[in-house]
Structures are given as C-alpha cells and as structure tokens.
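User: Assemble these into one structure.

Assistant: Restating your components, then the assembled model:
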Amino acid sequence: MSENRVDSVPAGDLTSPAGSGTAAPPAPLTTSAPPGPAARRTGGGARTGGRDRTGGGARPHPLRDRLRRDWQLLLMALPAIGLLAVFHYVPMLGNVIAFQDYSPHVGIAESPWIGFANFQWLLTDQSFWDATLNTLTITAFQLVFYFPIPILLAVLLDSVLNPRVRLFVQSIVYMPHFFSWVLVVTLFQQILGGAGLISQLLRANGYDGIDVMTNPDTFLLLVTAESVWKDAGWGTIIFLAALAAINQNLYEAAAVDGAGRWRRIWHITLPGLRPVIILLLILRLGDALNVGFEQFFLQRDAVGREAAEVLDTFIFWRTLVTGEWSYGAAAGLVKGVVGLLLILVANKVAHRFGEQGIYKKS
Amino acid sequence: MNNSPEGATTSRRGFLGLVGLSALAVASGGLLSACSTPAGPRPGSGGATAAALDKLTSLTPAHVPYAGVTPDIVGQNGAPGGFTKYPATLVDAVTAKPGKGGHYKAMTPLWGPLPPPLGDNSYFEAVNADLGATIEFNILDGMTIIEKMNAIIAGGDVVDITMIPSWTVNQIPQFGEAVNQLFEDLTPYLQGEAAKKYPLLANITTDAWKWGVFNGKLTGIPGSYTFPMGVVLLYRKDLFDAGGWTAPKTADEMLALGKEINDPKKKRWAFGDIKLSAYQIFRAPKEWILSGGKLLHRYETPEFEAAVDFMRKLYEGKLIHPDIVSSKGANGKELFKSGQVLITQDGFGGWKEMLEQMLPTKPDFWIEALPHFGHDGGAPGYHKSEEPGQYTFIKKGLGKEKTEEILSLLNYLAAPFGTQENMLSVYGVEGKHFTKNEAGAPKKTELGLKEAPPTYFFLSGRPDAITESELPRYVETAATWYNEAAKHWAPNPHEGIRIQRPAAYAALEQPTEDKIQDVVRGRRPFSELKQVVDEWRKDGGDESREFYMKVLQDNGRV
Amino acid sequence: MSTRPAWEERPSLPGRLTKGLTLSVIALIVLFPIYIVMLTSLSPAATVNEAGGLVVVPDGFSLAAYRELFSGGVVTRSVLVSLGVTAVGTAVSLVCTVLAAYGLSRPGSVFHRPLLFMILLTFLFTPGMIPSYLLVKSLGLIDSYWSLILPGAISAFNLVVMRAFFMNIPEEVPDSARIDGASEFRILTRIVLPMSKGVTAVVGLFYAVGYWNAFFNAILYINDNAKWPLQLVMRQYVQQGQALTLNGASDTASAGALPPNLAIQMAIVVLALIPVLFIYPFVQKHFTKGVIIGAVKG
C-alpha cells in the first residue's frame, strides 16, 4: 500500500512547470534503459548516418553548440509553448487545491492545506475503484472494437475510385460527430428503444418489443455502437490524410511486381499508416480514464451504476454536485498520472517494436 | 470595461493567490505521513451549518399587504389565488418615478432565446423610461448558472444587481460568507418599518423574506415563492374522458388503472417518471421526520419502503414509457403531449405551459392535476418547497444613494399582477409587444416574444397568482386544486431552518439513490432494500442524524 | 469518371458489388437518423406534438423553426462573432501549431524532448475552471474576443499528430536544404508544408470546428450578450420552458405562439452541420494523392 502511495509523488510535481518541463528529460523515460540519455542520443545519431553533418558532428555536443545550431527551431516552438505556459500551466497550478480543503470564495491563498487527505479518501473509496474498473473495461473494449473501425473505413473510402461518390460518402459519414450525445441517445432510442421503430414493428406483428437500451449486460455493446455511429466517420479524416501522404510510386512498383490489391494494402497501405495508428493508439491510452461524461450520465439510471458508472460521472456527483472542488482536483490529478504512466509505458513498448511512438527514442 | 476599480483589486488578490505558491512546501511536508489510512474528518465536512430563520424575522421588513388587486379565487393556507377574469383597469401602483437616472448592470439567468441588447430593444427602452433609470442586462446561460456563479464569486466581480436561483445558492460552498463580502447588507434599508419606503417589497410575506437573511444579515430579496408544490401529477383528462377511465383514489387503484390503460401496441404507456409523486402519495417524509423523540430519515420509514415497492411494480409491469426508462435526456413533456404517456409528473408551471402549447393546434387537448389522494385512500403528504425560487442581491459598497435607487427600482418591479407596472415590465407596451384578447388577457406579439423574455421579472419578487384568465377553466381548476393541496403538507421538523448539508451526507445521496434505483428497476430484489438502508446508516447516515438532531436541539424543537 | 491509375487492375465484379453494398449500408445507417433530424426541423407544430419525439413520417411542411431562429438580429450578429473568432482563432492556432510541430520535429535538436513532454502534459492535466477564470480576468480579457481564442489555442493532440506527419518526411529532404544554407523557416514553408497539405488541412479543420462549436469559454468569459458566439445563442433556444419547471413561476408567458421546442432544436442541429459540410470539400481537396515525395526528389 505504501509503495503505491509513493508512486503518486510525481503527481504533485507534474503540476509545476519547473518540475518536469524544462529540466532534464523526465525520469521515467530513462530509468529502465541502461545507457544514459546522452549515450543513447549519440547512438541514435550514429544510426541515422550522415544526418548530423550540419550539427558539427562532435560527439558530446556542448549545449552552446546545439543552441547555436537549433535556435531557429526553438524560436519556432516559442509561440505555442508560451501560450501553453500562460493559459495552461499557470491555471494548472490551481490544481494544488487537491492538497487543500478549498472553497472558491475563500481562495487558494487562504484555504487550509491538508496534505494528501483528499487522495487518501479517494483511494479508499470503493465507488472510485468501481468507476475506474468500468472505465478501463470500456476503454479496453473500445480499443478492440472501436479503434480499428475508422482505419478500415478510411481504407475503404480511399479505395473508392469515383471522386464524386468518394466525396459524398466522406462528407456524410462524419456528420454525426456534430450531434450532441443527447441527440445520439435519442436517435438510438427512437430506433432501437422499447418504444422505438423496431419495437413497434415487432409489436404490430405480434411479438414483444426489444429492450437493448436498458439491458446492463449488453450496455458495453450499446455504448460502443453509439460511439462508432457518432465518431467513426470523423475519426477517418486523420487516416485519409495519412493515406494521401503515402508515396504512390510504391503502389505502382508493387503492382508492376504483380502484387494484388490485398497484398498492396497489407504491404504498403498499413505500414504507411502505422506511425499514425501507433501514435493515436498511445494518445488514446493516455486518455484511457476518459470515456466521456454525457453519454454515460444520460444512460446511467437505465442500466444502473454497476454497468454505467465511469470516472467522469463519479467525479460529477461526488465533487461538482456536492461542491467539493478539492476532491475533484485530486481525482483529476490521479487521472492525469495514470494517463501519463500509460503513455510512457506504451511509448516504451512502441520503441521495443521499432516504432517511433510519440517521440523518437533518439 | 466592465471591471470597476473594486473589481481590479479583488482580481489582483485572486491572481496572487493563484501564483503565490510558497505554501506548496507545506503540502510536500505531508507526503511522508500520507501512508496511513484516512484519519480525522473528511475534507469539506466542516461546512455544515444551520440557521433558524424563524428567529431572524426581526431583521425582515414589516409585512404590509398591498390591497390594490385581489384575485377572485382567494388563495388559502399559502396557496396562490386565481384570476378567472382579467382586471378591467390596471392599478397604478407606483406614482413617482422610482429612478434618478442611474445606469445599472443586472445579471440574470435566462432559459430561453436571448433578446436583442439594450440600444436595439424597444421593450428595454420602454421599461427603462418608465423606471427613470437604465438597467442593462448581462444575461447568463441558465443551464450553466452554477459554473458561472462559482467563477464570479471566486473572482469577486459581481455587477450592481445579481439574481441567483436558490438551488444554485445551495450548491455553492460557504455561500453565506461570500454573500457578506460581495453583496450589500440591506438590513438598515429594509428592517421593520424602514421598508415602508418600499411598499411593494413590504408586500412580500415574512415567510419569504426570512430566507433572504444570510449569515445574520438581510441580503437577498426573495423572488417568486408562491408556488410551494415541487411536483404535480398531471393526467390526460381528455383521453381519460374518451376512454371512460376515472382518476385513482388509492395506490392499488392507480396500479390497476395503469395496467388497464397501458397499451404498448398502440404506443401508449400509463406513466412517465413519477417517483417523487409516489413518495408523496405514500406520505414518505421529504427528508427527516420526528418519531417518538427520535429522528428518522425517509429511507428508514415504512412509508418510503412502500413507495419503493409501488414504483417497483410499475417498472415490473412495464407501465413506464421505455424512453423515460432508458435515458435521462428523454423529454417527458413531449411524450405526455403526444399521448404516449397518460400520467406524468411536472412542475406546476408545466401544467399551463403544455395547455398553451397544445390548445392552438389541438382544441380538445386537456390536462389536469390528479385529484389529491393518499395510497390508502387518505390524504397525501406533499413536500413543501419553503425556499423562494431565487434571490436578488445588490453589490456591496455602491453607497447609500445608489443602493436606495436600486431598491426603488426593485420595489417598482415587485408590483403584483393587475398593476400597470407589472404589465409593462412583463409584457411591454400594448399594441407593440402585446395585444389584448376579448377577455382582456395580454398575448405577446412576435416583437414581444423576441424582445421581452423574463428579465425585469426575475429581478424582484411579488406575491404570485394563477393569472391565465384567457383559460378560465384552467384557473378555476388549478386554484381550487392548489387550495386543497395546501392542506396536506407533510410535517418537516426542520421547517424554517436554512441548512448547509454536511458534505458526507450530501455525498451519500447519489450512491444510495443508485442502489434504490437498482431495487426499483428490478436489478436487485426488493428484500435488499433493508441492506441498502443499513449501508446508508453505516456510511454516514447515522452521523448525519446526529447533526440534524443537534440542529433541532439547538433550536428547542425537541 | 474514375481516378483509377493506369497500373491498377480493373476491379472485379463481386468486389465492386461488395464495396457498393457496404458503402450503401454505411450511408443508410448515417443518413436515416439525419433524415429524421431534418424532417423534425421542417415539421409543423402539430406534427411534432403528435409524434411525441422526433418525426419519422412526414406530415406537413413548415419553416417556422428556421424563421424563429433568424428573426431578430441576435442570431445573425452572433454568426458574425463566431465567424470572426473561428477565422482568427484557426489562423493563430494553425500557425503556432505548425511552427512548433516543425520546431520540435528534428531528431536530436536541443530541448525538443523536454518541450514535447511539457506539451504532452497539457494533454493529460487540465486546469480547473476557476483558476482559468481568475487568469483570464487578471489579464483583463473578460469580455474580450481573445478570451475565446487564447486559452485553448494550442491542442497538444493536434500538435503531436502534426509533428508525427512531419517526421515521416525522409530526413534527407530538409537536410539537403540545410546544407544549401536555407533557413529553417524557409525549409518549413517551401519544402515541408507543401508536402504536408493533407495534415495541415486536417489540423486546420480540427481547430476550426473546435472554435465554431465552442461555447463554454464564452459562458465563463463573456458577460456582454452582444458578444456571444452562435453556439451560445443557439443553446438558449433549447432551454425554453425549463425556468417554469425550476421555480414554478406562473407569469413568464413565454410559451404559446412559439414553434415547438423540438423542431427548433433540430433546426439548430441542421444549421450547425451546414458550415462544416461547406468546408469539408476544401479539406478533402488536399487529400489528393500524388507522387508527392517522388516529385520533390525528382
């Protein structure tokens, strides 16, 4: 138990920009690999051959040389970093209320500090663990049954030869993304619900209506179907862009070599998409504890807390409704730390398989 | 541009608090001690407070009823009266111009389309002209009022006049203290005889005014408060008459009736969501009840258990519309209006709202509240909403002159139904924003609908009445029904005490309600209800009982 | 009317049939609910009331919901606000994101890992509402249009995705330009961006859609109703009648002549789709396949 607690130490530090932003590369990235970061960096340089010519090629680049080489790049990153620093990191400091008994009216400066009490209460709360387990189950299920669909759909859409048909289908499949969850659930209800089109059709023919909207056992399927309908089309857009970036010469060469349609998809299209797929997969893992609020809030009573309570609904009733801001901030930090760990592990695994991941191993 | 100098200082303080992180070290000191299981009270639990408002009536204005207009159906026991006919002539309640040419900003939420802003809105111009001062509205999105209010209170930047719904007030932690820092103490202006200067504010009853006392000071002007019924059971009278069905008089009759009228094949279900009404039919208490010197929570009463059993039967018999069952977003009103649901539960205002929406296209549409009945054929036990619907606050530190001008404006806006002031501030100018029908009832024109949503109306309170005299049948039914309802309030030992709920108690509500829903919807057997209540007691229910008991002891009620 | 390259084999008949069928089914699954939404928005009050929900079978035609939305200058003005915020915001976001994505895309460049990590953290840890409000207030941005742009101007997700696309460009391409003495900015604008039109269009679309649909920042930061963006103004139409239920006030007199709530809600949904539908072809145009990389090499 106590070790688990110590793991949450970085949580506090991460909220401060100085803690991890500008100093050395973050510890978790380097801990498990034997060589230090500098050694690995030069190793990477060697691997990519003559790439470093402009950099001077000296093995351990002194900082000044590297700054002289890369100042333009740093300057380019500055506006975005500056915006994030001001509008994200400064208010993010407000998350210190996780260590307080905070009241908005009293303010951070005068609210009492209470150490880790909020975290203690959170981590010993059975409802929190129930919600976490549900959330992770839904994430895992959707990684398998939702995540691949936009990729397949993008490949399918991309293969449509008639440009008008292609534009038409592409233009309609992403429209449901702009529907609110209330509307999506209502539409599902009107078609699949107990008073929906299908149920009424069955009743008119002497059968019973169906009840898929209130069955806790199939809830996972239902929410996944809703998500697919709403967002799979929207999700294709990024893959369509990636498909367009694949070198068409490769296809031609493969076709000339006699590779058929399926072989070309397998050997050119999918490898071409792979970096983007892996990147999105890793980012989705970082978001593992977020499966959305509204969709579950709306359908929570229908199937019960045991099936539909997710972290966001838990945080809603446990903190917002009761006005416990500090508790909510603590839950937010825990979510962030778990997301960070998942991203780092996933990135590591990606590197093992020779993938680029979020950032290169270099 | 909207920040006054005061706002600037508070913002600096807030910002320093944001970055002044020297205290962070304190937090890291707690790191090592963090391994043990939680000891001591849960954070946030210190906020529970109670103030017996009954004892604070010395702070409120002396009640002087305004005799200008009286309804033809007189309200009894605190029920609203009813006007079956529109007053032939409107009373001029405020003769002198209330304003002195000041310009004030007012913040009020709105649940409806945004009107064109000042300068582009002839309704605002007309009312402001009659007020003799300019009120400029900052309208807030009604659905997110809690978030906005929390931010505004944290930032300390309120405008001159602020309206906050009472349910929002109750969800803002330590609101009582915030109020004293941000809003003017109106006690010197309104206490006792001082209120004579503002006769229409003095027309608001003491029962409403006492809720305007926050932290020992009269700060809020109570808004609409005349409709203490939280929910009403409505039924499709037109369809009942056509089908030859009669309204139930007991819970068993209601269940039997439900089975009779339920017909999914015809896309017709007996009930919408009627949970809260079921509790009241079974006379389960609103929250706590004193029984033999002991305080019992509603979960612990046999009445509550019976109500849960009743609801369970409705679900079991599939008598509740599937859309209501499957999504919180389902629109009960639409289902009821279309006849897919025959008995539903809504706010009292929903009754006339649905009539007004449906009658133009469906003249034989008619709904009414179910006649009063208890589960055993006796009386129901209605849960009274004691608190006014909203409060209006005046910004602190505007000075005596401006505060008095604002109070005069709010006095004008407190003019009740039947006065010229009320007609102008609610409907606008005759012929322009509204027209009168043969009965003399106003009806907004297209311009009126666009420019004159409830704005001024929200800034002050007034004794309300049922005033839809264009629907005399409705006024008569509703006023009679309300007069009867007001005889059946369920006893509430904490009546008249403003209680900030203990955090542990508030946090317990959702999990317990979830478990009860599981029982009601048949996901858990009915026999487990006892276990649910036991868990509630163990997880903090018993602890809360002590708090609520102490409140009663402190106020000499036991 | 086909874009089949010369080297690609003719699709087989069963293949074409399967593909056609799959696409039709997908289109149907998406279009049927959209049809319900549009139909409801175009139905007269009586039909909507009779349906008790969304309308599936047409019965009468009415533009009342749309007329209601566009009567009065409020909606029209908020359209201008939204267009302005979306245009300026997308430009700011896209420029900053492209610059940073490129600035951090060169392997081994100084500080790129800590900076990237810092960006990634913003994806995981979100600031609270009240601290954000206090910040915007202390910067004097309350009631300024910038408060709708700056707080959410950089999306870590978009930045990281864009960087991934940049990194897929073979390193030899920018490196050879560096040897020729080109500045980094020149490499970005002349070489990298032309090769990344697709992802730039997509990220631009993501930002534009984000700005167009945003309303929560406006709720917090904009008190002046004349500066409300479209989405916030539209939300108000959906809430009709809720105040009645909330405080039981009897005399608000807002119902009656109004078209049914649901038709207006659906009209809002339909209106929200139109600009996106209009923009998408411009984005899709950049998904053109070419022998991009080969062209640069050649």
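DSSP finds 15 helices and no strands in chain C.
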